[in-house]
Amino acid sequence: MVVEDAHQPMVDFTVNQDTIYRDPGGPGWALVGDAFHQKNPLDGQGIYNTLFTAQALAQQIQAHRDGQPWPQALDAYAEQVHAEVDPMFRVTMGRIAREVYLTYPDWFAATVGRWLYADEDYLERWIRLLIRDLPPDTWFSYPRVAKSVLVGAWNDLTT
Ligand SMILES: Cc1cc2nc3c(=O)[nH]c(=O)nc-3n(C[C@H](O)[C@H](O)[C@H](O)COP(=O)(O)OP(=O)(O)OC[C@H]3O[C@@H](n4cnc5c(N)ncnc54)[C@H](O)[C@@H]3O)c2cc1C
What we know:
Blueprint: E1 20-21, E2 25-26, E3 29-30, E4 37-38, H1 46-65, H2 70-101, H3 106-118, H4 120-130, H5 142-158
Antiparallel strand pairs: 1-4, 2-3
The structure holds flavin-adenine dinucleotide.
Flavin-adenine dinucleotide binds near residues 44 and 48.
């Protein structure tokens, strides 16, 4: 979304942008990167996904050259991409929905939100998620959030 006010960024990250999956290809052509799959850029996964799709497509082009019919090669390509991209996409959208698009009362942001973002364990796990060092489905859990909140509250009470 282009914002008209010159003092605003050209792209408004607060708009929950649509996610697109197009057909992976057809007779004699295939899509990679954003052309195949586009998502909200907030968690910075687009370049990784683009490289991944290029690598996966290269493998399937090779398989096609080795005798795999093109439609099956395209199906295998799409399957590989969905398996890699979808778990991270679900987790990213969940985090962004909770932490960016949901509006919380000021007191909540000043306590629970602050405690969460001050927790080194939470931040480290988030960074490791972003660089794909943690499997998407394992990085977040409510017991861990509860621990961050307890530690933050304890620190506030004792310092
Ligand atoms: C604001 C914003 C911030 C982002 N931040 C991050 C980030 O921090 N980390 C991250 O990983 N990802 C980020 N992304 C996503 C990332 O930029 C994209 O996922 C990635 O660039 C997609 O690569 P691509 O090669 O598929 O497409 P593109 O990078 O869009 O490349 C497509 C190219 O094709 C050209 N083109 C289009 N039509 C034609 C035509 N008809 N003929 C010839 N050339 C044509 C375009 O000009 C463009 O140069 C961000 C995206 C946006 C919009």
